[in-house]
Amino acid sequence: LGFLFVQTLLMVGLWTGWFRNIFAWYAVAWLAVIATNIKHNQMHHRFFRGALSNLLLEHWLGLLTGTTSTSIITEHNLRHHGHPNDENDFVRPSLVGFRAQWVNVLCFYPKAAWQLYVHKPLDFKIWWRTNRKLFWRGLAEQATLWGTFATLLIFNWQATLLYIALPWLHGQWWLITFGLFQHQDLDGEDPWQNSRNITGHCFNWFFFNIGYHTAHHLRPALHWSELPTYHAREVAPRIDPRLVSPNLWRFYADWFSRRSMPTFAVQP
What we know:
two-stranded parallel ribbon; 64% helix
């Protein structure tokens, strides 16, 4: 909640002109990444006990990330977790296959976004038939997000694009592209070898244990704070050690050099 409050204050300050500098913009761009991780965790295991508190939090997260909380149910909870790395997964790493990894990084987000917006089924049409409560919940979130965005555009379109839309885009780009780093060339059907992991405390403190990704895929509804313990107990004895990095920089180095792409699985 502290991260979300700070991001909100910085975005308000930048948009209104109370203060404007590159450091504040850069902070907002990375806080948007943190907010996307918070939203990801919220949609797997809700933050509050009360329904109203969770509802308000999800509206707030939409304003901080540029996508509604309910919009990720189909693409992430159902498709990515239900069909990891196959054709039903809209953000599957096989969307790119260039020899140069930096080209894959540049091309993955546009190709994944194209898959999402062209091939993703229309949630509201499905929810109207199967889950009216989710339909109205999602519609209310869309109204909050895009109504607020349109209003801000009318009053100051330049500040809205620069200080609102660009940080949103950075957060979305980072989260989706990080999925490429976590899953490229791994076997989606092997529960122990389908994800790369980062176990460093600093990275996981800022990004709410998203580094323990194998544990998350094994137990998607497990609260994020419990993932390190589950990783140590269940994942560490079974996973190929090349899929575990002690920090973000080693993670990137191993991925770009393709050292973290094992051709075999370690059996339990």
